[in-house]
Amino acid sequence: MAQVLIRNLDDELVDAYREAAKRNGRSLEAQLREALWVMQPMTPKRVAQIRAEADRIRAMTPKVAQTPSEILIREIRDGVCED
Prior knowledge:
By secondary structure, the chain is mainly alpha-helical. It has one domain (11-78). The chain is 61% helix and 0% strand. Helix 1 packs across helix 2 (28-38). The longest helix is centred in the middle third of the chain and has 17 residues, at 44-60. It is elongated, with a radius of gyration of 24 Å. The model has no long low-confidence stretch (mean pLDDT 93).
């Protein structure tokens, strides 16, 4: 695994991460690692992974016939539908 050294960080920023690490019961290093993981850049590979996960979740959702919005709006406007 790679290592990174970041110099000249603002003391308040480091203190905030140190407090967050304490609240989460982990080291400052682990907290920063998690922050970097969560905020990682959107690479084409990551976009493809997210889309695949969305497709997998979408496939679990039952297909339901839906009324087009223009029909619903028309029914509401014309007083056909009860509120």
